[in-house]
Amino acid sequence: MAKSSKPQDAIALLKADHRAVEALFEKFERARGEATKQGIAEHICRALIVHAQIEEDIFYPACEGKVDDDMLKEARVEHDSAKLLIRDILAGGPDDAFYDAKVSVLAEQIEHHVGEEEARLEGIFSQARRAGLDLVALGTELRTRKEALMREYERELPMPELSAVKLRDAVRA
């Protein structure tokens, strides 16, 4: 199938990421065998780390002042909540008694987050579209950064950094 020469706008790119991760979560649920599950979980974590990073670095800043500020703040906190689980999933393995449960809870968190971003009338994406953002230019910028991060993270997947949640020293132990 030939690729379209029409650039993908930012919202279409981010929604495609959402659908891809949803498919990975479904694949994880059907998977058998620890090595298979771990490979899928790592793929999920990589996709989510990259997706969160491009949203936080490019899309959300472009939305500031044009999209409900409280929604953007909540989205960043939801990202950090997911990143905490991602860190734990990456640090552990399928022999961890809670491994599958952690991936399942991560799926639920992402489903909630996606629902808020994609809500038809008042979601972040709807607000961004109504605000008249240059979604094609943003899409190009998102795609370029995403491709670079995916190449970089193929070699070594970093622990995701938190942007809104501050951990206290007592909690870090």
Structure description:
- The chain has 173 residues and is an all-alpha fold.
- Helix content is 73%, strand content 0%.
- The mean pLDDT is 92.
Give the topology, please.
Blueprint: H1 10-30, H2 34-63, H3 69-91, H4 99-118, H5 124-130, H6 135-155, H7 169-172
Helix pairs in contact: 1-2, 1-4, 1-6, 2-3, 2-6, 3-4
What is the gist of this entry?
Helix content is 73%, strand content 0%. With 173 residues, the chain is mainly α. The chain is globular.
| Structural class by helix and strand composition | mainly alpha
Query: Helicity range of the residues?
Result: over 70%
What is the strand tally? 0
Helical stretch tally = 7
Question: What are its keywords?
Answer:
173 residues; mainly alpha; 73% helix
